[in-house]
Amino acid sequence: MPSHRMPSEADIISTVEFNHTGELLATGDKGGRVVIFQREPESKNAPHSQGEYDVYSTFQSHEPEFDYLKSLEIEEKINKIKWLPQQNAAHSLLSTNDKTIKLWKITERDKRPEGYNLKDEEGKLKDLSTVTSLQVPVLKPMDLMVEVSPRRVFANGHTYHINSISVNSDCETYMSADDLRINLWHLAITDRSFNIVDIKPANMEDLTEVITASEFHPHHCNLFVYSSSKGSLRLCDMRAAALCDKHSKLFEEPEDPSNRSFFSEIISSVSDVKFSHSGRYMLTRDYLTVKVWDLNMEARPIETYQVHDYLRSKLCSLYENDCIFDKFECAWNGSDSVIMTGAYNNFFRMFDRNTKRDVTLEASRESSKPRAVLKPRRVCVGGKRRRDDISVDSLDFTKKILHTAWHPAENIIAIAATNNLYIFQDKVNSEMH
Amino acid sequence: MATLCGRGAAPPPPRPLQAPPPRPAPPSAAGAGAGGQDTMFARGLKRKCADSEEDGEGALAAFRAAPSYSLQRQSLLDMSLVKLQLCHMLVEPNLCRSVLIANTVRQIQEEMTQDGTWRVMAPQTAGQAPLDRLVSTEILCRSAREVEPPGPGSGDGHALDLVSELSTAPSAQAPRSPQSSVWEVDSPRESRGGFPKSLDQIFETLENKGPGSVEELFSDVDSPYYNLDTVLTGMVGSAKSSHGDALEALASAAAPPPSSSCKDLGELDHVVEILVET
């Protein structure tokens, strides 16, 4: 569903997230806006609009702020959105920029009371002399109105930039992580949070590692993982200590000495970590690969998939143009059998863990019309070149797919390509295998 | 930047990002890096020979001594130093990126120290940090106000020497209060005549960057406001530099007095927030 506005930087999508049923899809952008899409129920009357997503609500979540002490702007860009599990008719989500997390409540209004005794239709007080009988106000249907209201603002918890938020399975608490610290909040309490991880060194000169991503375990409310810029994962147990600086488990792959270069550390930095739905595995993304880790094995990942290994010889250029610092996200499908991540040139990759097959697809208006089948793409690295192959040297590094999301149950994916959102559905293979 | 040009098998010529003009060789300069190797050898300074290394390292050291590799490495070092300075003016820079770049610089320095291409000046006074201490991130990001004019012995202004000089200088001096250090902003700059251009540019960039409002805040004209700011924050020096580089702000541990706790911006933020809101 490409944006029809003139492309501007504020429209760049910065996060994408399905809710727990997949009925709603939220996107955040650089301008601080949140747009929620809702899946239309499949109906026989309109077979072509089976289960498509339409705009449900748009609201301004964060505004730019100015930190007067440091003379710095605080960007309104939405870094992450996380949905709360639905507990009543309303939907709730957390959205965060670099510094402040907000809880939003989304409610629907599709009826309104009519027939007041004291007020007329416009709400003005009636002249009492004209009232001759009493009536009972009746709820009449009205056009659906979606109301969004901020319920909590969790501010002043972070000195550094927030990179992750994660709702606990207990549905009462959530965590927020910045470059050096992780805080635990209660959803109802905004004026204090508990610091559960602090890796800030006593002497900032000694700083060599930062936190890059963090997530609660989907089932065990005491467990969470955080990743670092050195490529390690730390699984922490909140029952063990109040300050979880000591990890329960440290997941780290030994470095391959044959591939060592000045860029080794940078490309090992983990940009995203996601627990599998089962809770048994973790998925990490670093610059060139995605890796699956078994929680029971700390020594190395159980699976490693090459996303774009052809970039390995171009690391110096990618360092020069800063692309090497791009933070790609990764995603599991509902059954944890397929993993997905984005790449450059508006390509995204999917890896089937069972068949070991992978595919490269492109999200662009030119190559995909509505209801057309996506054609697999190929990047050639010299040697034999097929007709539709793209050569490495003609990849567009400004077109990066950093944010992707997979429907929790079905084969529906949401791909953010700069300021366009693509939603792809696999009608044929709707069932998970 | 639309596309990324491919690279051939041969290492490309050194092409640092926004390269400063080639350093004119100062009178007693000894420069490693682009075009500097001749003067280095001309000074008669010996680098570690390949055969003086351990046997297994011989081949590797020889490889590292090859001109194209060290040129490329120097280019990477220059590029990294520039990257650390060229931060977003208005928005706090990405700490993760800064840390990764700083680690890259450290790696290069480590390697250059090992094969002897990293020349460190003799310490000026006793009790200095050990010679093999790597230049810390803080030094690379520190603004000129904390730079002392080099002593007479280091007049050759070699870029690496200057940086290492900085690494040893702070520990030798009595800690200055941030307030007095700001007033010294201009003097170090004036006496930096002999410094190699690249580092000069870096420090000047640091000096001049930042929103104009910040410059006004700390100029002589606004001295009463400035004093209030000092009182409030106790870390004026860090505050000034932090608009440019998060690492710089957070790592300015050497100069200001410990009580100003400039290391913990979180507490400071909180205190100021309370003060400002009341």
From TrEMBL, chain A:
Gene Ontology molecular function terms on file: protein phosphatase regulator activity
SMART domains: WD40 (SM00320)
Highest taxon of source: Eukaryota
Segments traversing the membrane: none
One GO CC term on file: protein phosphatase type 2A complex
Keyword DNA repair carried by entry: no
Family: Belongs to the phosphatase 2A regulatory subunit B family.
Protein name: Serine/threonine-protein phosphatase 2A 55 kDa regulatory subunit B
Organism: Vulpes vulpes
Taxonomic lineage from the root: Eukaryota, Metazoa, Chordata, Craniata, Vertebrata
Gene from which this protein is expressed: PPP2R2C
